[in-house]
Amino acid sequence: MPDSLKVGLIGLDNSHAIVFTKLLNDASDPHHLAGAKMTVGFPGLPSDFHWSYSRVEKFTSQLRDEWGVKIVGSAAEVAGECDLVLMTAVDARQHRQLFEQILPLGKPTFIDKPLATSLADARWIVRAAQQARVPLMCSSALRYADNFRQALAGEPLMAIDVYGPVAEEPAMPGLFWYGVHCVEMVVTALGAGCRGVRAVSTGPNTLVCLEWGDGRSAFIRGLQGAHGSFGAALHRADSVQQIDINANRRPYYVGLLETILAGLAKGEQPVPREQMLELVAIMEAANRSRSTGQEVTL
To answer: Does residue 289 share a domain with residue 186?
Structure first.
């Protein structure tokens, strides 16, 4: 990868924008990734989401003053001045609109999770990128946790049980705000092919049962107001393997950014399109199942 790879940010209201920039621009960071630099950013569109409007000014100033990121006035300007786009806008309701603005420039684009807050918007984004031949990737960093990836390299799974925090926000209801991490782990482990989703809430818990067309299954225990840890139990025919995601020495953001730079930036498709869509389909179905009490068929 040439040292001149320029990376741009769209949506400076997300702590991930700071994390990614430090990994690229701070040579003293123990996990520094050479070969690319964060050079330009657009604060983002106006939003009524408090996690956006309450942080965007602070993060924008930090990126400009501490890391030398050039601040511009539009998403299209970012795409015009970089080789690779990282869309970190925290309000996922805006992802389709922002992607529309940069699509004509044809730059490889990473969209921070979730891809969208509706399956209709997610399908539009994926279809538009495919038709325009624009490399596109969306993923939670938990997909790239080292011990999780190593565990999945073993024998095929029969089932997986996942746990993690699922704080909720009205702007991105149900699993779309924080539950996306647990869903990402499930789809990473089992691939696309979920056929049935049933979800219930019991006090601070959100419980989701998922069935695959080939008989495999998954269970998600989402917790509110409890520990902030992620983990999983991987079930195989002759064993069960426990994974503590928080036990990794290397931050999982490093594995994510490595994949973006080594794959997406070169025009590859690191996350299959069908998995990116399935994530949104599962979250949408889980929210509907929780409200109706009925299983939702995908």
So the answer is: yes
Same domain, 24 and 147: no
One domain for residues 158 and 244:
yes
Tell me whether residue 127 is in a domain: no
Do residues 137 and 87 touch, judged by C-beta distance below 8 A?
Answer: no
CATH number at residue 24: 3.40.50.720
* Burial annotation 134-146 (CB, 10 A radius, 16+ → b, else e): bbbbbbbbbbbbb
One-letter identity of residue 256: L
Residue 118: its pLDDT value, please? 97
User: How far is 109 from 106, CA to CA, in rounded Å?
Assistant: 9
Q: Is 213 within a domain?
A: yes
Contacting residues for 268 by C-beta, under 8 A, at least 6 apart? 135
On whether residue 128 sits in a domain, the answer given is no
Q: Is the pLDDT of residue 3 over 60?
A: no
| Average pLDDT score over residue span 273-289 | 98
Q: Which domain holds residue 223?
A: 142-250+281-297
The answer on pLDDT for 2 being more than 90 is: no
- Nearest Cα neighbor of 88 from 69, 113, 64, 116 is 113
148 domain-assigned: yes
- The pLDDT mean for the chain works out to 96
pLDDT in tens, 174-203: 999 999 999 999 999 999 999 999 999 988
The pairing of strands 194-202 and 205-212 is antiparallel
In order, the DSSP letters of 205-219 are EEEEEEEETTS-EEE
Count of domains for the chain: 2
Cis peptide before 114 (omega within 30 of 0): yes
Looking at this protein, which amino acid is placed at residue 83? D
Q: Would you give the distance in Å from CA 69 to the centre of its chain?
A: 23
